[in-house]
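Table S2 (text version). Query chain:
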Amino acid sequence: MSGEEPTIIDHARYPFTKQASEKLRQIGFKLEDFRSPEEPPVARARERIEKSAKPLKEVKPPEIFQGSEEYELLSFPLALALAKAVGDSYLWRRLALYEARVARGRLEAEDPGKIVKIAVENFGWKLSFNGKSHPPFRLHFADYLRNASRFREEEWKLVNQRLAGGYVQLTKERVVRLLEEEVKRLIQSRIERAPEVEVPEPLRGLVEELKAFYAGVRKVLSREELGRVRFEAFPPCMASLYFDLSGGRDIPHIGRFTLTAFLINLGMPIEEIVRLYVSVTDFDERMTKYQVEHIAGLVGGKTRYRPLNCGRMKTHGLCPREEELCKRVRSPLAYYRLKVKQLSKAGRPGKT
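Corresponding structure-token output:
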């Protein structure tokens, strides 16, 4: 892809590109042509979806074997179509994040010319490479801001970058990280904007299995990541923030603060809260730990913070819906405690 026409292996490695989409049109990709969940492209599509449910801190790009390139390429739009048919926006975000992490892993091993070509041709970046300068990449500040504005760490703020003539000087690692954001946004947009999918009858059973699989993923994620904390007792606001976090959605600072304070006040260990963040984002672990400890009152002013009350949650747009139980309490913590009592009386299993 750097100075020459892309090959089928390039299309399979970067199926989100315009060239890969054109290749699919040439092949004549049609969902109705697939008649069995056992067909290699369908089985691979299912694998892509199921892998997106796992912790995404470090994603190892799957190897593409000779002779399987077309199956690999076909499995990408199949995975998107199946995800659309499942109709779960949480799955859509997880799949987009997974595919973006795979792309990032592959781009990290690419030569600079190919990285520039993908960025320019698919996302319209003003990006160039000069191996004699350090850092060697130059990216227009508008392209930088469009992606880096989602990052909360101080090191990504524009004022902390080397800027000359409207261009930010960047390392390969940072360019690839910014490209991951573009890929994630592109894939999620493709799924969300796609028309409703009419799945061929032979694949409808697979769609139902994937619906059940991701319904189970929500429970497993919360049980494994939250430990002794009972997710089923979370108020709607905290459940929403938690799944936005694990689904790769950008959470505003006040949302991260109140979710962290909520978990701290439930007694969740600091290490587990930190692990929750770094396992689903690329937040710096050291800085994340400091921020969590600050909210817990262990460093800084030594003030232990509580989550926002219901009134302030609504003011900040963090209240997704009001359940009947919400009307009886004034804070997420009060909701949780009351819900735990109700569950215990009902004889539901679990620890508090």
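Notes on Table S2: The first helix runs from residue 8 to 13. The chain has two domains: 8-202, 227-345.
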